Automatic annotation (TrEMBL):
It comes from Aureococcus anophagefferens. InterPro entries: Pser_aminoTfrase, Pser_aminoTfrase_methanosarc, PyrdxlP-dep_Trfase, PyrdxlP-dep_Trfase_major, PyrdxlP-dep_Trfase_small. It comes from the Eukaryota. Gene3D superfamilies: Aspartate Aminotransferase, domain 1, Type I PLP-dependent aspartate aminotransferase-like (Major domain). This is phosphoserine transaminase. The lineage of its organism: Eukaryota, Sar, Stramenopiles, Ochrophyta, Pelagophyceae.
Length: 393
């Protein structure tokens, strides 16, 4: 708290004095208890230790009764924490969120025209895959620069729509899903990997995410959530292209139900499954999705208050309603090389790891503010950012 009070007192200084003199900002007295602000893999939940792996069925087949039971429990807890409707299928799939969204696109797109919405790196990748890999011809691109959203309402309800719920590399999220028609005939493909947000499940047909983002789990595993309409597409449409085994969600014209009851297409890590179960149990203990949102929004508020009082720091998201509450992206009034010096200084000081902007994004900082990060750590980080800024300038 002393470091925070020192930071607030320093804000009365003129911007030029704060920007030009390292002496204007002393090295803060306190550091974050956890310097892990990476946007993926993300910080573990508070109190985590490797002891959570103690009950993992290591050395056992994932197809054994205990292996299937653990995977089924992960599916059931996911449904409970996220409030997924009972008639939606949930499956554990390979290759993280990328694997989940790709297997859905490869298995279902091509039946009708496609609208792809993107405003950051990963959404742009999905557009590239739809046009260059799937080679679909009837594709409309809805794009915007970093920090902005395209006109989502211009998408067509009779088209399939692919979008990113929360832009990890831009810090721009979709504020709501009201733009998706209730009477749509196309499917909506929702890449939700960094989103700790309300989900109107009636608006989304395919939803994907990965364990290593909001839940702080381990990498290489993805989650695929399908509405009944998406299942109907899998059973009524056979794409005119070969599908690798890890993309095959249907067998003999029917959805492979085993994938949504504890079986998997390939071998998962049972240690990672145990880690995900631990994260879900923690999420339940803090109130489920509402608790995750509350913690994440408190972290965003801490950064927002600081940005409001700091003239050289700005949100990359232009509209406050679109600010991500997990992947918080900032631009700074300084040269790109200075930003790199700042992030290196903060890492060398063991204050903040991996907070540089994504390589394709405008130079700046990307601070993970998901639910597994303590607000006290965010508050302790901010005076250090001021100190680093003054030091490099």
């Amino acid at each position: 708290m002393l470091a925070i009070r020192q930071s607030l007192a320093r804000r009365s200084l003129a911007p030029s004095a704060r920007a030009l003199s390292a002496a204007a900002v002393e090295e803060p007295l306190a550091k974050p208890d956890s310097p892990n602000f990476s946007s993926g893999p993300c910080a573990k939940r508070p109190g985590w230790s490797p002891a959570v792996y103690g009950s993992a069925p290591v050395g056992r087949s994932h197809r054994s009764s205990i292996g299937k039971a653990r995977l089924k429990e992960a599916i059931e807890k996911t449904r409970s924490v996220l409030g997924v409707p009972d008639d939606y299928r949930i499956g554990v799939v390979p290759a993280s969120d990328t694997g989940a969204i790709e297997m859905a696109m490869w298995s279902m797109l091509g039946e009708r025209p496609v609208d792809v919405c993107h405003w950051e790196s990963f959404g742009k990748t999905w557009f590239g895959d739809v046009t260059n890999q799937l080679k679909l011809s009837d594709v409309t691109e809805f794009n915007a620069a970093y920090g902005e959203l395209p006109d989502l309402a211009a998408t067509r309800k009779d088209h399939d729509v692919v979008f990113t719920f929360n832009g990890t590399t831009s810090g721009v999220r979709v504020p709501d899903l009201d733009w998706i028609a209730d009477d749509r005939t196309g499917l909506t493909f929702n890449d939700a990997t960094s989103a700790a947000m309300d989900v109107d499940w009636s608006k989304v047909d395919v939803t994907t995410y990965s364990w290593q983002k909001v839940m702080g789990g381990e990498g290489a595993h993805g989650m695929l959530i399908l509405s009944p309409r998406a299942v109907e597409r899998l059973e009524s449409y056979k794409p005119d292209r070969p599908l690798p085994k890890i993309f095959q969600l249907a067998k003999k014209g029917k959805v492979d139900e085993a994938l949504f009851t504890g079986a998997t297409i390939n071998t998962p890590s049972m240690i990672c499954v145990e880690d995900y179960l631990d994260a879900l149990t923690w999420a339940e203990s803090i109130g489920g999705l509402e608790g995750l949102k509350k913690r994440s929004e408190a972290n965003l508020a801490a950064v927002a208050n600081w940005v409001d009082a700091t003239p050289w720091a700005h949100f990359l998201a232009k509209d406050p309603k679109t600010r991500s509450n997990t992947s918080v992206c900032l631009t700074l009034d300084t040269a790109p090389d200075n930003v790199k010096k700042m992030t290196k200084y903060l890492e060398d000081a063991h204050v903040a790891y991996d907070i540089g902007a994504y390589r394709d994004a405008p130079p700046g900082l990307r601070i993970w503010c998901g639910a597994t990060v303590e607000t006290s750590d965010v508050e302790a980080l901010l005076p250090w950012i001021e100190h680093a800024y003054a030091k490099v300038n």
